[in-house]
Specification:
alpha+beta; elongated; Phosphorylase Kinase, domain 1; Rossmann fold; 17 strands; twelve-stranded mixed β-sheet
Length: 491
């Protein structure tokens, strides 16, 4: 079972609990995830639910690997207090066992996708419009993934969400619950009759759950990002600050979300609630267009800072990362990485390259088109006084590596040539701020050192991730080309 199942509690009327009971779960990692949200946790087997103290728990969470008998359902409900939540997770019923709705009081029903072992999306399945709208949390770039999303969307529209949500979660209360913590904040921001869907976040120590807030007609009202550890709290706070800063700039035909709430809830989690213009099938170009260049140009112009590069936060942060990797990589590869940093920094510093605010995760999947505007979101990695062209490089390379799976040679041509639309986009972006020659290559090298060290720290904190190996391999080769020497990084 995926430990992210504990994030399902974010969809309840309260997110932390004094007394809780979980049944049918033996995985130690999953139990540890529940302990973070429940002060006093009792654990039992589903066959012993009937002996649990009746009405004693704020939360009873029962997991069944097969559709349960009515008696076990009723035992779950009996153990919950008058204002407690009864949550039942089970595979969708194919064999005509007693309907859960017959035993529960006005349950809310959620689908869990794609599986209980890899739980990424929890969405309301009873409301067709909201079920289909929930797929906006998933913004694929590969055509096969886009096709799967398209099919899932229309299945949901016809009330067939359970075709691709093999597990269901039922939530019921004996009495109407009082909203506490984050749920109360969301109601205050958007109104009482909101529907919620949850993206549990990509596995890793930077994983952040994200809630999509909708009205009962399926219109997407906003998003809520959640930080519950040191790293993710800092990222959520940083994104709130970045959005507030960027919102006051002249962005032309681009726009960013509005911050509706940012702060710490009574449950101790850091949250950012933001508006959105996203619709059910929002999309964005995979290749940079005029609007992308205009957005980056305005961002540079509005936030430009002239200062010595080696005294700027960008140089200090990346240098600290390189030094912090000592003992993680082989001496020679680490030395080559440090050499590339020093070589590029010398050129950037000597050329007095101006700095500006950078998004640092500017990709097709972190943008979409809305009402004639380029909508740019996910500012969690944003930084002020950063090197120019980082966002332009990132847009071209992330798409080239993760979507096109382009070779190192092809990627290099996109960076330095002008035969492709990406190359022309980069050349125009560089010319706009007077960057050329060795300085351009130095900026490529610095960007790659930034990305490599950030990912190495991620891997050290959690482990290898899907797509990470391909990214690092391509970045390694491109860095060697940018520095005009064979930089051999052992990753």
């Amino acid at each position: 079972m995926d430990e992210r199942i504990a994030e399902a509690l974010l969809l309840l009327s309260a997110n932390s609990f004094e007394r809780g009971l979980i049944a049918g779960i033996s995985d130690t990692n999953v139990i540890a995830a529940f302990r973070k949200k429940i002060k006093h946790l009792a654990i039992t087997d589903v066959d012993r639910l009937g002996s649990a103290e009746k009405g004693a728990f704020d939360l009873v969470f029962s997991f069944f690997d097969v559709p349960p008998e009515r008696g076990k359902l009723e035992a779950t409900i009996d153990a919950a207090g008058l204002e407690g939540a009864a949550v039942i997770v089970m595979p969708r019923d194919r064999f005509g066992s007693p309907k859960v709705e017959d035993s529960l009081r006005a349950p809310k029903v959620y689908g869990l996708s794609p599986s209980i072992q890899d739980l990424r999306l929890i969405l309301p399945v009873e409301n067709r419009a909201c079920a289909s709208a929930s797929l906006a949390l998933y913004q694929p770039s590969l055509w096969k993934a886009k096709l799967r999303k398209f099919l899932a969307y229309w299945l949901a529209r016809f009330g067939l969400s359970t075709v691709w949500t093999p597990w269901l979660m039922y939530v019921s209360y004996k009495n109407e619950p009082a909203m506490k913590g984050l749920p109360a904040i969301l109601v205050k921001c958007f109104g009482k009759d909101v529907q919620l869907a949850l993206f549990t976040g990509t596995q890793g120590y930077l994983r952040k759950p994200t809630i999509q807030i909708m009205d009962v007609c399926g219109s997407i009202l906003g998003y809520c990002k959640i930080g519950d550890n040191f790293q993710t709290k800092a990222m959520v706070e940083n994104e709130a600050n970045m959005i507030k800063l960027v919102a006051g700039l002249d962005l032309g035909d681009a726009m960013v979300p509005d911050v509706m709430f940012s702060g710490v809830t009574i449950d101790g989690i850091t949250v950012l609630v933001q508006s959105t213009k996203k619709t059910h099938l929002s999309c964005a170009p995979l290749v940079p267009e005029v609007m992308h260049g205009d957005f980056l140009g305005r961002l540079f112009k509005e936030t430009r800072v002239d200062r010595r590069f080696r005294e700027a936060p960008v140089y200090l942060e990346v240098t600290e990362r390189v030094r912090g990797l000592e003992g993680y990589a082989e001496d020679e590869p680490l030395r080559n990485l440090a050499d590339a940093l020093e070589w590029s920094s010398d050129i950037i510093d000597e050329a007095r390259v101006p700095l500006s605010l950078a998004h640092r995760d500017f990709t097709p999947w972190n943008t979409f088109l809305a009402e004639g505007f380029l909508y740019v979101f996910d500012w969690e990695f944003g930084r002020t006084e950063w090197v120019p062209l980082s966002d332009a490089f990132h847009f071209v390379l992330q798409k080239g590596i993760l979507v096109d799976h382009a070779s190192e040679g092809s990627l290099w041509e996109r960076l330095i040539g002008d035969d492709s639309s990406e190359g022309r986009f980069l050349k125009k972006s560089a010319a706009m701020i007077g960057i050329e020659g060795d300085v351009y290559h130095a900026l490529i090298a610095f960007y790659l050192v930034d990305m490599i060290t950030m990912y190495l720290f991620h891997f050290r904190g959690y482990g290898r991730t899907v797509g990470g190996e391909e990214l690092l391999t391509r970045w390694k080769g491109l860095l060697a080309r940018a520095t005009k020497e064979k930089v051999s990084l052992l990753l």
